[in-house]
Write a structure and sequence with these properties.
The chain has 60 residues and is an alpha+beta fold. Helices cover 20% and strands 28% of the residues. The protein has a 4-stranded antiparallel beta sheet.
Length: 60
């Protein structure tokens, strides 16, 4: 995923300490720690990404 595709998640903490960035592609979904942009990225396929977002929205 290209660097420019990542954006800070609206679910990130307001205090700046718990920031998550997400990138959504046509068939993939990436999650990374905004404090470590060059670090590891959790890559999910489209269905896994949808399940991940649904769980976050339900606060699981």
């Amino acid at each position: 995923m290209r660097e420019a595709e990542f954006r800070k998640s609206s679910f990130s903490g307001a205090n700046g300490g718990e920031c998550v960035e997400i990138a959504r592609g046509e068939i993939s979904f990436g999650v990374r720690d905004s404090k470590n942009a060059s670090g590891p990225v959790l890559m999910l396929d489209e269905s896994q990404g949808a399940a991940f977002l649904a769980a976050v929205k339900q606060s699981r």
